[in-house]
Fold each of these.
Amino acid sequence: MGDTQDSPSGPSEVILCGTFTLVPGTGAPLSLILTRKELLIQTLSLDAQPSPHYSLALADCIGCRSFRGKDPTELGGYLTAAFCPLRGEALGKTIYRQRVSRTFRIEVSRDKEHNFNVAKTWANRIWEMAEDQGPPSSILPPSRRFLVLLNPFAGTGKASGHFQTHVIPTLTEANATFTLLETERPKQAQELVRDEDLSGWDAIVVMAGDGLLFEVVNGLMERPDWACAIKKPLAVLPGGSGNALAASVSYYSGHKQASGTKLLNNCTFILCKGQPVHLDLVSLTTSSGRRIFSFLSFAWGLISDVDIESERYRFMGSARFSFGTFVRLTALRTYRGRLSYLPARTSPDSTPESDSHRHNLNSSTDTVNPNVLEDSLLVPLNEPVPPHWTTVTEDQFVLVLLLYQSHLGADLFTAPMVQSPGEGVMQLFYATSRISRASLLKLFLGMEKGSHMGESIPHITNVPVTAFRLEPLENVGIMTVDGESIPCCSLQGQIHKGLGRIISIPQGP
Ligand SMILES: Nc1ncnc2c1ncn2[C@@H]1O[C@H](COP(=O)(O)OP(=O)(O)OP(=O)(O)O)[C@@H](O)[C@H]1O
């Protein structure tokens, strides 16, 4: 059995090569070659036939560790490397991440400690090379500590089981630790993040639907130290029926559209390999003076009706939205209201509201309130919108939607133009009462793959905006913020670019 060799990094970029055996396995020798990009595994055979080989990309590596054999008489050094490569491409199916873990044994001498040290060198170099494949500035520590908030009743009620079978093994391989809290009632997560010291965790992970993350964001914004607390990195694992942010982050991180446990696998990989990036938050103020913080969407009309009315089809999982849409299309309603907005192009380009928050100049009293985030683009709701805003001339709507992420659901690729969670723009979509059922059907069918943006659908408008106001002329219809219903009322909102942070894998330069 040959010894392991350390090669200088030349054009071949071989970092290490050596002879191992696979565990468990037949004991047949394998050649392992570590390059800057991959781990090549080749069966060694004595006949002249070319040996089968395969490679694992280091960009997909989530962890690597070395250890000694348990039996004191066992001399080998051991190495386990875990990867989450993409699967399904060759079969033309949905491409998604699937965990692959390989353990190798090396015995280059009769000295157990020496063999262990060789395995350790390999594990360290593999991990070093794997880290080189990631984003340049690693903000999270290598051993990540997560607070996981899980809603056991989200979606079809499988979140706890999926966490055990799909998430824990991957977190373990990635050397991450976590504290799991299963929520027992609504608002528990909101109160917890509002009241607790969060410094013991590197990120707050929500395994649920968008509703639980909505609680977390609003809980953080209720803290006296909200400006600092809202910078705590958040992460999403899809466990509910509305998993729009999880689907969006998976898309931003370079994955094809997926749902169910495939999306969960993608998001678990992102949790292990990603970095905190800016997350836009929208501050909404209602006519009753309520302040709500939103990371995803505001909806009125068809979309919010479907979201809430389809609760009764919860057993269907995310399919409840498609089914609910078809049901609602048969009994279409219109809603009267005045819609105004500030087009994105006319507002000054704002930088992420990272470390220096502008605080509130409370316009009703003209006193500075340092404890409140300022909505600098808005005037009080009882005053007319500023003259440089646009007011839609029609006042009969079938739907009004403001979406700030790419997906409205795991299967609803509604805003394909959104490429990252912190662009500082809301995508306003509205349909007036003149829209036909056929056009709405075309819209919703197109949204499954995002193809609706390339089609001409009459009476649907899309405008990028940074602020909006909606004044219902009759207080009817359901309004939703991030999929959670609120009483129908006049309200307005503005985007705060990069106010929060979410773990994602940025693509491109
Ligand atoms: N243990 C619990 N029992 C009942 N409700 C809970 C519990 N924990 C959280 N909730 C509430 O459930 C709501 C929906 O949660 P979540 O978004 O996680 O699931 P979901 O199935 O995707 O729901 P939806 O599609 O309605 O948003 C949240 O508003 C949250 O307050």
Note: The chain has a mean pLDDT of 87.
Amino acid sequence: MSTSLLLKYFPDLTETQIEQFAKLETLYNEWNEKINVISRKDMESLYEKHILHSLGIAKVMEFAPGTKVLDIGTGGGFPGIPLAILFPETQFTLIDSIGKKISVVQAVSEGVGLKNVTAIHGRAEKLKEKFHFIVSRAVTQMPEFLRWLKGKFEKEQFNPKHNGILYLKGGDLAEELAGLKCEIFNLKHYFDGEFFDTKKVVYVSKGNFNS
Ligand SMILES: C[S@@+](CC[C@H](N)C(=O)[O-])C[C@H]1O[C@@H](n2cnc3c(N)ncnc32)[C@H](O)[C@@H]1O
């Protein structure tokens, strides 16, 4: 890959960040031989399918230093790991209910030298900590997701936008988001129409639900 692809869409990356992103491919390849965290087909387009897609959240929200972000159902570390590289001053907690996936997240995070990632094996709904933002991709339908979030939002606010959820979603969302006040951002607009024809970031402010 394609450092050039990353730099096209994130031109302010530092040398350290460029090296960290480059290392991800090696680490996921190594881990994938031991534990199948990413399908072979997806590994061929790791950057587009997983890394750039995860970073789509950064096109919609800049996490200020000190912000605490939870990635629910992170799987092999998406969107949490790419975001943690992009925002080194932000604290990321990545949780998944499958232990072997979290072992990979822990190893990859250490492998790229991330100091701002905590990996937790457990169910999101049981977690007691509070966060400013919750990110996620491909875990469950929004109504169920919202039920998991009770008591999980900090009151203080670092960003111009209210604390809330940034959920990466594909396809037709009308039914799933019916009655919910949210903003929907089409990712293809941020990537010159080159990727993500049907992919969106759904932003739901915490004001929407009982936090
Ligand atoms: C389809 S995978 C998506 C993984 C990752 N977010 C990605 O996009 O590559 C869904 C993940 O959510 C996790 N998961 C499902 N319910 C969960 C819960 N209640 N708490 C934590 N993780 C959960 C599963 O173990 C699985 O790894």
Note: The helical segments are 3-9, 15-34, 40-44, 46-60, 80-86, 99-111, 142-147.
